[in-house]
Amino acid sequence: MPNSNGQIRYAVVGGGWISQGAFMPGVGQTSNSVMTAIVTGDPEKARALGERYDIRPYGYDEYDALLASGDIDAVYVATPNFRHREFAEPALKAGIHVLLEKPMAGSLADAEAIEAAARASGARLMLAYRLHSEPGTQAILAAIRAGEIGTPRFFTATFAQNVDATNHRAQNGFWAGPIPDMGAYPINAVRNFFEAEPISVTAVASKVPERGLGCADTVSVILSFTEGRAASFTVSYSGDSVDRLHVVGSEGIIEANPAFGFGEGVSIDFRLTRGGKTEERTHPVVDQFAGETAYFSDCILEDREPEPNGEEGVLDMIVIEAIERALETGQPQALEPRNRQRRMGKDQVRDFPLADVPDFINAATPTG
Fold this sequence. Notes:
alpha/beta, nine-stranded mixed β-sheet, six-stranded parallel β-sheet
């Protein structure tokens, strides 16, 4: 049940950069959500964040007590990928709603177990695809659906950053590397823009020896769809910052740069070219984390299924696992035909001003 103000009470599980720099400030922008607890393995961080937000600190070893406390309605899970199931599954089994960071888990089996727990419990599970509530991304989707570029034919994206070799994402193999971490964005985007699931996957990877990463530095992927459609994207932990996409149709082109980012000064604007004429379409800078949280809380309060639910997360995980197989075998990977009836829609858009971000407490930045 929500608190006396009708707000969903959240515990934040994981006190790293994404929690401190995005989710926790964003919650304060909403009217239907509030934080009541922080869970982290760092006692100093737990104490400091507890004092900053006037919330109760918990260690990871106290998680079961938190779930049974009656003090929370939902958890936001932002631990490393391989620990997602560890915290999402017991929360769902306890009837606690879960907002789960992407990628859904550190393996397809874990993702399927999380989805099964949500189906069995009746608690709501939503994947933290913040762009599903972002106005510019939704405007791109609306333009495609309206036929403004004709029939979409192919999609391309490039997404790169320089990740420090000491960062945990760079030292824990494929499932912490650039495909699950960054590739989830173009995968999810093209699945929604095409309103279809890929039927085959091809991938190649490269590694810069002197970087010393524990995963591939750069991975390029080709996804094939029915009706002659295709998507390609490259993601990298060893490149200068780039973040863009193109959707090319039979009668026009959409270009967005930035396409997947968030934060100060970042709005998802795009150019639509048709018949030799280009139109700039701009959108506001919004707090994407406030937006996704408010949307999820609305779903809980109104007792309805969120759109980027466990099925949406598993469908991305199926593609990610196929990319892993393609890299291991050097062979294209066929995918079982699948269909998803529900796709992202304009009812999910939320428009909150960007929150101020306080100083970080024992948290590395994404590139450090």
